[in-house]
Structures are given as C-alpha cells and as structure tokens.
Amino acid sequence: MMRRRKFCIVTVLFIAMLLLGGCGSIDDTQSNVQLTQYGQFFPVVKDEPIYEPNPGWIQGALIRDDNGYLRVANQLIIWPYGYSCLKEGDTFWILDADGEKCCKPGDSIRVYGPNVYYDFTVGLVGTELPDDCLGPYLWAIAVTNTN
Fold it and tell me: Which of 8, 11, 120, 140 suits a disulfide with 116, CB 3.0-4.6 Å?
C-alpha cells in the first residue's frame, strides 16, 4: 500500500513538474532533492491511447543525445503511459508503469512501437516539444531490457 502511494505521489509530482517546469533537456547538475531530478523533458504518452499505427521492433543502446534526450537507434523515445524517470546519484533510471526500474542509458533495449510525426507526437504527449528535441520519434508501446 505504501509503495503504491509513493508511486502515485511521485507520478503527480512528475506531471506537475512537466506542466509547471517548462521543457528542456536533462541536466546532470540538478539537485536530487528537487523535482527537476526527473529531468525537465521526459516525453510520456498522456493517456492510454487506442490507436496503434503499424508498430515494429527496434533494438539498440539507450543513449542520451547531445541535447540530453533519450534515443534508441537515433529514434527519440516517447515512453509508454505510466512510465517515469528517477535520478539516483549519477544513474538516470527509467521506471515502468509499476514503478520498477526498467532501463538506464547505456543499456541495450528493444522497443516496440511505430514511428510518428511531430504533430502526432505532440498529441500523444499533450505538450509542444522543445525546439532542440528533434525527430525521428518512436512511440514506445513496449520496452524490454536485453542486458
């Protein structure tokens, strides 16, 4: 019960941070005690969508690009509904919808989902993307750590 409550509180704080904090890349210098420890822009699908256009699998290392965005095979990942992120020391974890550690930059992962255009991505995320957050975009429906 306490774990679920903690997850709900973290999720609410994360959403508030996205709505009130603006957008930008993930900054390693941010304090662990501030909301920004989760990064200022971590695109997550805003609702459980009902439309799945032509998905497929890609596999590769999860990397942070020069602007701090997370990519696999040069695709900017739009994370599934319910996913979040957590910074523990120098490690930036991606948490699945259950709040469990899923992967981190440097891990080899498989991502299932379709490529989507900018306008579709904005609709999925529910906000404009930062100017330096360039595509191509991949809407992740499922993520598997292959390490």
Answer: 120
